Amino acid sequence: MLSDYPNHLDQIKLSSKQIEDQVQVYDLIFSRIKNRTVEWGMQFPMFIPSFYEYVIEKNSIPSQEVFFNQYLGDHKEWFAQNKLSGDIMEGLKARAFRTYPSVVRDVHFALTVKEKRCFDEVFYNYNLDIEQGIDLIIGYASKLYAVNLFTDTYRAYQGRRKKKYRHKNLEGLNYVDLPVQFKGSKECGKFYLYYDRELNDLKKIVKDNQNNT
To answer: Cα separation of 106 and 149, whole Å?
Structure first.
């Protein structure tokens, strides 16, 4: 099944430390704008592919502004066809800016897990993320685990329950949840990143799953 998808982690030449060095000096800007059409009334092209394609091609983590501009450039035909008002564009930018830190956290954590060599395989593909809601796949003791990474809040658990029934589980994968604190275990400039604490939690979840099967 995984052979149908490239492992995008193998295409990223950055290390987790290099990501830390880059984002250490980045600013994070958040707007209170939440446009109803953007949040609930319209489907837009996904943000994640633009982020990963930039990282793979440029060997760099984009800033918030560069990330959003990359996204607009990747989908310029779509935006040309769907002439959006200034209010909607401002709302979309605000949403992209809110999404950005979590995408940085996720790629940094995936590379951290890969570098620590605690598992036999570490796999990420943004199409599996979008289509199946799989944030990370790890291999351990001849089993493959599909990891769902989400913040440990009531709202996130509500979203997790909806997400769980939105996708059909893929054969051969053991699905596990990894709830994490919003403020990750490593502070880097204005970013909170997932690191040893979250990795240890993941190892425990996998070990417990092994013992119970």
So the answer is: 8
HSE (side-chain half, CA atoms, 13 Å) at 187? 3
Q: Which residues of the chain, if any, have pLDDT below 70?
A: 1, 153-167, 213
- The verdict on residue 21 lying in a domain is yes
Six-digit token string for 114: 């890969």
In the structure, how many helices (H) and strands (E) does the chain have? 10, 6
Q: Give the whole-angstrom CA distance, residue 111 versus residue 19.
A: 10
Q: Whole domain around residue 68: which residue ranges?
A: 2-105
Round to whole Å and give the CA distance between 93 and 84.
12
Cα separation, 145 vs 121, in Å, equals 10
Q: What pLDDT is recorded for position 130?
A: 93
The answer on 135 and 92 residing in a single domain is no
Burial per residue of 91-116, b for 16 or more beta-carbon CB atoms within 10 angstroms, e otherwise = bbbbbbbebbbebbbbbbbbbbbbee
CB 129 within 8 A of CB 7: no
Residues 10 and 70 in one domain: yes
